[in-house]
Amino acid sequence: MKIRVLIGAMLLTMSFIAPAAAQVASHATSGAAVQPASTGKTQGSQAVILQPTDKPVAKVNGKVLTQRDLVREMYSIFPYARQHNGFPKAQEASIRAGALQMIIFEELVYQDAERRGLTIPPAKIDRAEKEFMGQFNSEQEFQSYLKVEMHGSLPQLRENIKRSLLIEKALKLDVENKSAVSLAEARAYYDKNPGKFEHPELFNFQAISIIPPRTASGSQNNEARKRAEAALKQAKAMKSYEDFGLLAEKISEDDYRVNMGDHKTVPGDKLPPQVLKVLQKMQVGQVSDLIQIENAYTIIRLNAHSAAGRTSFDTVKAQLQTDLQKAKYEQLRVSLDKKLRSNAKVEIVQG
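-> structure tokens emitted (351 positions)
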């Protein structure tokens, strides 16, 4: 069970409270006045640190949503903010905008769920409460959360869990259940959009490269040629992907050496002509002779070759169903948002 609305709250709280009770108290009793966003530096880039307060940011049919709700959602959208000491400055505005729209949407869904008389069985709330509490590392951590976010009230936590479950239930009924995509629907999409499944000639290969300096002298180029010839002898003796890869890690001079020389799958039209010409004549598992590109030398092991064509439905069907369902889900969610907003009074509170 995923209590997404509360996960952000947990991340938010753990980012602003210290374990000691005195420190918790100082945060919990800080006033409702807006704390200006501050910037810090983390790993060489600026980050924006936002303070959760009770300042209104929006009203939905009279229900006030606060800066605390907004920052909580921002942490849910970008949970790495805790590790990175804030939100990336370049992305903070877009994360904020997305979070604001989401908390408004969730409040609309919640109000609509209550109007429709949707309910959550107490036993399900009990399970969700236990699961949520189990995500804290200690009782002290949980009590810190409870004090800061719920004013020390377990009934308030239970009410928030109930709210979150009602939102999930409404979205399941109105969006998730209706977004299912059958295998037949996926097949119909595949047949109607053949161009989306066409692929060019593809090659999967490993390489070992010997690369002299850009401004190499004649003697340096000769030395590179000798090293390349020695590398070729070793490469020809390699009988498997692993053997060739370990040799690449040891002697290759390009960036792919850290990944066993593996270039993964590359379309033929993205390859240098010299390399493409050789690959098209090779058999899978074969090691090439030296391929010279300017003053550098490359040795290739071909691992797979696919002719240009259309990827089969069996190959893409699982991912296609997933992608189509995600797209349908988002379309339904956007439609629901528009429908709920059309009968609601939504106000953005400018700060």
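The chain is about 50% helix and 15% strand.
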